[in-house]
């Protein structure tokens, strides 16, 4: 049943088509549409996979930003505490040094008093010896039980 389809007017620019030719053309167009549809479906699937990967990367980066933000806040808090920690540690060390200096000053004062007292005693002894007439030195007694 190959009937020729002819246009209603003689001015139609295309040659007349048969039903078989028309079916072949439609089948070819349908196959082309299916190939194009498959290509588009594959591209869509690839785009979805890429979007999923990017979304995973965005989630990972968002988590990293959160973690780094927390770390940054912790470090900023530590930085704010550094002057106080430094002052406290310095005070603790300075306190030990101040105690040592205090002990040394007390010991120095004690030694100066002792030295002054010894100097006064020595001066008094020299004065006493200068006032006494010179006597010959005494000999020590002989040791007991021996020569």
Task: Describe the overall structure.
This protein has 147 residues and is mainly alpha-helical. The protein has a domain at 17-99. The chain is 77% helix and 3% strand. The protein has one helix spanning 19-131; strands at 4-5, 17-18. A two-stranded antiparallel ribbon has the order 1-2. The model has no long low-confidence stretch (mean pLDDT 85).
How large is the share of residues in beta strands? under 5%
Q: How far apart are the termini?
A: 168 Å
Discrete helix count? 1
Spatial shape: rod-shaped
Instruction: Assign a percent range to the helix content.
Output: over 70%
Mean pLDDT: 85
Largest sheet: 2 strands, antiparallel
Oligomeric state of the chains in view: single chain
Low-confidence segments: none
Q: Report the order of strands and helices.
A: EEH
List keywords for this structure.
single chain; 147 residues; mainly alpha; two-stranded antiparallel sheet; 1 helix; coiled coil; Gll0509 protein
Summed up, what is this model?
By secondary structure, the chain is an all-alpha fold. 77% of the residues lie in helices and 3% in strands.
Write the layout of secondary structure elements.
Layout: E1 4-5, E2 17-18, H1 19-131
Antiparallel strand pairs: 1-2
């Amino acid at each position: 049943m190959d009937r020729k389809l002819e246009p209603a007017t003689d001015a139609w620019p295309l040659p007349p088509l048969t039903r078989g030719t028309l079916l072949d053309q439609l089948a070819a167009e349908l196959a082309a549409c299916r190939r194009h549809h498959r290509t588009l479906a594959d591209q869509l699937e690839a785009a979805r996979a890429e979007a999923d990967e990017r979304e995973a990367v965005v989630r990972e980066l968002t988590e990293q930003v959160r973690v780094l933000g927390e770390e940054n806040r912790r470090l900023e808090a530590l930085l704010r505490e550094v002057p106080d920690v430094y002052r406290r540690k310095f005070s603790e060390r300075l306190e030990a040094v101040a105690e040592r200096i205090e002990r040394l000053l007390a010991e120095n004062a004690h030694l100066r008093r002792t030295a002054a007292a010894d100097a006064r005693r020595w001066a008094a002894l020299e004065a006493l010896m200068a006032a006494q007439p010179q006597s010959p030195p005494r000999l020590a007694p002989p040791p007991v039980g021996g020569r």
